[in-house]
Design a protein that fits this description.
- The structure is a single chain.
- The chain has helices spanning 16-29, 44-49, 60-65, 71-74, 90-98, 107-112, 130-138, 150-166, 187-199, 212-216, 224-227, 232-235, 251-265, and strands at 3-7, 34-38, 76-79, 82-85, 119-123, 141-146, 174-179, 237-241, 244-248.
- It is an alpha/beta fold.
- It has a single domain (3-265), classed as Rossmann fold (3-Layer(aba) Sandwich), CATH 3.40.50.300.
- Helix 1 packs across helix 13 (251-265).
- The radius of gyration is 18 Å and the shape is globular.
Amino acid sequence: MTTTFLIANQKGGVGKTTTAVTLAHLMALDGYRVLIVDLDPQGHVALSLGTQHQTGVTDALYRLLIGGAPLKDVIVNVRPNLDAIFGDKSTRDANDALIGRIYREQVLINVLRGVSYDVMVIDSPPSASVLNVAAMVVADYLIVPTLMDPLSIDGVNQVLSYAAIVSTQYKIPLAGIIPTLFDRTTKETSVQLEALRKNFPNHMWPPVPFDTIARTAPDPGLTLVEFAPRSPCMIGYKKETEKGVIRIGGYYAVYRQVKKLIKRKK
């Protein structure tokens, strides 16, 4: 049985693709068979994995959804245990072509039905699109990365409102909200984080600390796991407590939350 995670926020630039790729790679390294699906026309998943020029990448999602290509023809292996279906600028054309179709919200679940993976990770576009709705229909869990600024928090509220509408027919529970590029030293961060904790007390996941390394990793086509496995965004930051120094946040801590959900679904 496949467990499917949708990574979404209606605001762009919040670390959505970095989160999707990092978590997918961690799952694959842990022995899970993983498929990552990029629904964003920017095509940053391919860029992040260094496979944007690889055979089979171009127009993959368009060929699957509109051209009728078999699933096996658009899946590209990118790492051990990790396959991908890539989006690019043609993905926007695919979304537009689906607008007039009946049962368009089921387009992804139809083409992905029966895939033999343990986990799917879907990176969604920062927009209220047909493909976003289709992704919510497929997904078992929603994960929302966000910066600690008003526009990004508004993006969180928008995607959750959108999910609530979809959930009247297709249930997609919120798994977690991840504060990304987290700078605990700023007042705005503290204010926004407290507001989120008040509104979503049971869904706040470990923060991912601000880290310039996280912004440079896609340049060489490496994931954060490969490029900087001991960087702050991966291992979190230190905090002194009465019991000694502990580490807070980071993608390894986020992945532990994800792994609990995978085991629960099984």
